[in-house]
Amino acid sequence: MRKHSAKTQDEAAIDMTPMLDIVFIMLIFFIVTASFLKEAGIEVNRPEGNSGRAQEKANIMIAITADDEVWMEKRRVDVRAVRANVERLKAENPEGTIVVQADQDSSTGIVADIMDSLNQAGFTDHVLATDVN
Q1: What are 58's strand-pairing partners?
Q2: What is the pLDDT of residues 119-132, one digit of tens each?
Q3: Cα Rg for the chain, rounded, in angstroms?
Q4: Does a structural domain hold residue 6?
Q5: pTM value?
Q6: Spacing of C-alpha 132 from chain mean position
Q7: Cβ contact 111:102 at 8 Å
Q8: Number of independent structural domains in the chain
Q9: CA–CA gap between residue 96 and residue 104 (Å, rounded)
């Protein structure tokens, strides 16, 4: 009689480690290279405009509500503190554009004050946001 030894069969297994490494590296790559949008923290009803165009690097958002409250980075700020906050944010992201989102019912004086303080600080890359018809 022949002696039958137990055959050991190697089961085919897929090693998932290299694939998981690649997925994690891609995740880190997309997180690092993503352009994060700094939101003002409040939604406003922007006036309509026909000549508007989309901003690609709109990273600094300033929102003005109908009650003339100024919001930056999801918190309410004083009009006199807008310049200091924008200087800090521009230091973090020098290529970002400043977008002023004024509610259509906000007073023109506060919008003019903010735009004037941005001009006096030397920031010429700011725009006023509108809704396109």
Answers
A1: 97
A2: 888 888 787 776 76
A3: 27
A4: no
A5: 0.60
A6: 20
A7: yes
A8: 1
A9: 24
Does residue 112 lie in a domain region?
A: yes
Within the chain, how many helices (H) and strands (E) appear? 3, 7
The residue type found at 102 is: A
- In the prediction, which pLDDT does 15 show? 81
127 token code pair: 């725009």
The closest of 59, 65, 61 to 43, measured between CA atoms, is 65
**Beta carbons of 61 and 101 less than 8 angstroms apart:** yes
What's the pLDDT score for residue 9? 55
pLDDT tens digits for range 46-92 = 666 555 556 555 578 888 888 889 988 888 999 888 888 888 888 88
Is 79 part of a structural domain of the chain?
A: yes
Cα separations (Å) of 14 from 21, 24, 66, 95, 115? 14, 18, 60, 46, 60
Tokens representing 93? Answer: 């992201």
Strand partners, 60: 98
Q: At 93, which CATH number?
A: 3.30.420.270
